[in-house]
């Protein structure tokens, strides 16, 4: 009588676990799942292992799948279908969100007036200007502590606060912002858009996208400063109507004019570019709800650049994108002037 073979738990007929790899806050993470695991299982494991609650989870999946977030449209979709695809998890832990909300609450809380110090006389100092600069400014600067090198972000925020042009515009319009903070790129990035700035409650908090998408550097200073001008205009006007755009361009001009580090002069006409009624389409789907985003179009990814153009992004660098945007504006301006002259009128201002 033949003896029975002992049970071998490593036998080949036992299904191997699935290894799902994804990027979260710039780091590669790997989680193991059984062969029949679903998206619901993935969400639950992320919540348990990384402490990112389902309400904060967004999975950006390559290969045509796109954005997935709880509650999923197809919660029973097998995670095996995600194997081999690039996955980015966008989401902060509950503790990180709590820390940021606490910072916002502290920055916006009423301040108790301190003792009034006697002013000391000084020569060659504009005390009225100094007083206004202390009143009309960004009272608290807050980098995100859980991102790499928060001290670099703090220096960037300090540079914006102390920018001569920004300080002059803040005084001129009497803008007092309790909190200026940086934005987590992963929290505001999808296939369709990249948010560059947010204004909460008409200037209570302004968030700016300082970092590149991969956290490996910082965005162009002038682009961020123009985004800040845009968000400051939302302190007064919410919708993107003509009143908003008039104020936005006015602030941009004032910042350039009063930036003594540049001699008070701009380089290139694009600094003072004011769109005509026909050009308003360039902000379609871009500047909405106080957000400046790089938007997408049905024909492929399109960049709505802060230089004022609307060009296909493809694999172009930021410099090439801005250059093409400027070329498009020049073509439109020449075309408008030619049409005006052919009709016997003057070029539009």
TrEMBL record:
It comes from the Eukaryota. Residues 317-340 have a biased composition (Basic and acidic residues). GO terms for molecular function: proteasome binding. Pfam families: WLM. Residues 305-349 are annotated as: Disordered. InterPro entries: WLM_dom (IPR013536). Residues 129-331 form the WLM domain. PROSITE patterns: WLM. This is Zinc metallo protein-like proteinase.
């Amino acid at each position: 009588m033949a003896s029975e073979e002992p049970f071998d738990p490593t036998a080949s007929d036992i299904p191997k676990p699935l290894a799902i790899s994804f990027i979260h806050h710039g780091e590669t993470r790997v989680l193991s799942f059984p062969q029949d695991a679903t998206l619901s299982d993935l969400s639950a494991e992320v919540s348990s292992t990384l402490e990112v609650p389902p309400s904060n989870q967004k999975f950006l999946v390559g290969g045509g799948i796109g954005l997935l977030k709880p509650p999923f449209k197809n919660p029973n979709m097998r995670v095996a279908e995600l194997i081999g695809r690039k996955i980015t998890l966008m989401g902060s832990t509950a503790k990180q969100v709590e820390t940021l909300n606490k910072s916002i609450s502290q920055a916006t809380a009423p301040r108790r007036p301190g003792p009034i110090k006697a002013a000391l006389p000084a020569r060659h100092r504009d005390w009225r200007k100094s007083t206004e600069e202390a009143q009309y400014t960004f009272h608290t600067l807050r980098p995100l502590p859980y991102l790499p090198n928060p001290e670099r972000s703090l220096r960037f925020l300090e540079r914006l606060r102390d920018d001569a042009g920004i300080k002059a515009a803040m005084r001129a319009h009497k803008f007092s912002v309790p909190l200026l903070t940086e934005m987590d790129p992963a929290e505001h990035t999808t296939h369709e858009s990249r948010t560059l700035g947010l204004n909460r409650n008409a200037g209570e908090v302004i968030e700016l996208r300082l970092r590149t998408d991969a956290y490996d550097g910082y965005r162009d200073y002038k682009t961020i400063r123009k985004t800040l001008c845009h968000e400051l205009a939302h302190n007064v006007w919410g919708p993107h109507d003509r009143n908003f755009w008039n104020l936005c361009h006015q602030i941009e001009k004032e910042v350039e004019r009063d930036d003594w580090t540049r001699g008070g002069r701009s380089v290139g006409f694009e600094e003072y570019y004011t769109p005509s009624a026909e050009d308003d389409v360039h902000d379609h789907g871009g500047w909405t709800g106080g957000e400046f985003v790089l938007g997408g179009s049905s024909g492929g990814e399109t960049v709505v650049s802060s230089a004022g153009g609307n060009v296909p992004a493809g694999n172009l660098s930021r410099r090439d994108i801005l250059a093409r945007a400027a070329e498009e504006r020049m073509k439109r301006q020449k075309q408008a002037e030619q049409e005006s002259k052919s009709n016997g009128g003057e070029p539009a201002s």
